[in-house]
Amino acid sequence: MTQTASHSQTPEFDTNKSQTTAILYQQPTEAEMRKPSLLLRLGDLMAAAVLIATISALTLMAVHGCSNDVDHQERMAVKHQLQFSANGGNR
């Protein structure tokens, strides 16, 4: 008996097979050369609108937050000035 038991479930692969094809580059087809359709342009327009709306909303939130800080600082400054003016200007 010259047979040996093989316990491996791994298939045997041919080492001479190439993983590449003979076609490396193809010219674009007529369909790929056509200009984008109306739906593609509409999708791009909607994506740009969402991007602009997001950036605008973030900018407005930052400006609103800064204006609230400025109003608070102004109120505190007036309160501080009134505190010392009520004492007759003496410290």
Summarize, please.
This protein has helices at 30-33, 38-85. The protein is mostly helical.
Q: What does it look like?
A:
The structure is a single chain. The mean pLDDT is 81. The chain starts with 29 loop residues before the first helix and ends in a 6-residue tail after the last helix. The protein contains two helices and no strands. The chain has helices at residues 30-33, 38-85. It is mostly helical and 91 residues long. The protein is 57% helix and 0% strand.
Please tag this protein with its features.
single chain; 91 residues; mainly alpha; 0% strand; elongated
What distance separates the N and C termini?
A: 114 Å
- Given as residue ranges, the uncertain stretches (5+ residues, pLDDT < 50) are none
Strand content: under 5%
Q: Structural class per helix/strand content? A: mainly alpha
Q: What is the residue-averaged pLDDT?
A: 81
Largest sheet: none
Series of secondary-structure elements, N-terminal to C-terminal: HH
Number of helical runs? 2
- Please state the overall shape, judged from the principal axes of the Cα atoms: elongated
Radius of gyration: 37 Å
Q: What is the number of beta strands?
A: 0
| Share of helical residues | 55-70%
Topology, please?
Blueprint (H helix, E strand, L loop, with lengths): L29 H4 L4 H48 L6
